[in-house]
Amino acid sequence: MASSQSVGGGQVPVNCKLCETDRPIQWKCMDCSILMCRHCKDKVHSQFKNAYDHKIISREEIGLHTEELDFTNIKCEEHTEQFSCLYCYTCDVLVCPTCVAKVHKRHDLIEISDEYKMKVKGLKKGQGKMQNSNSNLKAKKDELNKLMSAENSKYSKVRQDIQKHEETVKEQVETYFKELLNKLDQSHETVLISVKSDLNALSIFTNQTEGIINQVQDCIDISNASEFFKKVKTIEKSTDIQEPQTKPKYSSSPKFVPGSITQSNIGSLQDDGNLSAEIKISLVINNEYQSELEKIEFVSPCLDQSLWVSPGTLEMLQRVKPEGTNLKIISKFNIKVCGMAVTPSNELLLGVKSKTRLQQISSCGELTDSVYDVTPLLPNAIHVISENKLLVGAYNDELKRSAVIIMNMKGDKETMYEHDKHNQSLFNNTMYITTTSTGNIHVVDMISDDWSGKVVILRQGGHINQYTGHSTINKNKQFKPVDIVTTPSDNVVVMDFDTDILHILNDNGHFISYFNTKDIGIKLPRSLAFNRTGQLYIGSTRVAGSKTKEAKLYEINIAGF
């Protein structure tokens, strides 16, 4: 058997470059840069001109001889009569003595061989990243294929159910059944188009990266240093490829629910949930920062890597920036914060205790009144939908009123959610708000002074659902939601204060999974926020009875939800 080399995580056969038979590869000539079997080394290569001067190494040594490259004969591109002697790390270029004397004397200069090693290390890192990506994408493709198979099986079963039921109602309902089948076919086609689209994107990406991986390997294998540095910059850029993002979930064909043999209730197609793979949740702490606060009840990331943090009613608001393992204070205000959110223009909107009008802090630190006034209510939850829309949760204890208000950029109240279709109050005390891409609004409503609460889900037209905790998670401890955010995958995460558990809901407010923050060493989590690049921030509070200011902020990479 011929030996093989790795390409994109797989194995392809490598033949002897001289006889091209399937004899095992045993040797490599470093001067000729060819792989040989034992026969050709002894009988063919030995006849080459000056073969006795060539360096031949065994197959096992091939990966150990990058240092054999000759770095002394690389001609300077600027001064062709001279050879490059060093590498300018500052300018990212090879330099000769003249280059050093004229331009690079005070720059960071290193040995060419050292830069070569760093370049190879970087290339291998990029190559490994793409190989890992391909491996992950293969797993995703397998999952999608399984989903499509399950969808096809489900589709077949539902179709059979419909057809079987159709036989029992005969001619009088034939038209109605045809309508059901047409709807099912359209739904099924939509599902397949969605899944196949992602499969196609993954296949295209995989094909592209396999070619680049080969190019990277070819570059790494170059035995001529001059040729290597001519190609390496282009190759380095080509390894920085963004993986295609598959949809977090896929619509599924509706199920068929049989009815009585009358046209009004023959049966109908009902939503049977989303088509999705098994959820594998991962939270990994990327950074951990020490604050100077007793607790971090609110956190809002800015556009410039800084963050606004506040302990809430303890009359303190800080703008901080991560520095090492601490949060460096950039500015601070003595304000009792009830709610806050950063706008797309990097301004901070604030709900301040006892004020009906939101305040704002400009990007340069000026505190002023905003155009958003919710009189006679008091704002205590703020969520920015877009540049033109704002959600405000507000209440008035004396009036026994609580509402969620959609406001435009002028401060006009466009929509108010306060009562259900039976004219009963939707909320007791709106505390936190988030939205999903479908337009659903998720509101944390506190129903008692001990922070027990629920999540109310709204959509245009009114109330559609509510979540009051999980029967197992909250069997012995009441559900106490203290913050809520929407993930980049459009799921909703609710922080349950007494259990340290993140409840993960879909956009309709149905429970899909959970995560205990104690599993990664985070105790007493209190606040949640996502930054612009998809990292989750969790702010904590101090242990009950403690008098130290020990609240921490965690930056976390998430996956699976």
From TrEMBL:
GO molecular function, one term: zinc ion binding
UniProt cross-references to Pfam families, sorted A to Z: zf-B_box
Keyword Ribonucleoprotein assigned: no
Key words of the record: Coiled coil, Metal-binding, Zinc, Zinc-finger
Keyword Metal-binding in annotation: yes
PROSITE patterns: ZF_BBOX
PANTHER family documented for this protein: BONUS, ISOFORM C-RELATED (PTHR25462), MEIOTIC P26, ISOFORM F (PTHR25462:SF296)
Entry protein name: B box-type domain-containing protein
Biological source species: Mytilus galloprovincialis (Mediterranean mussel)
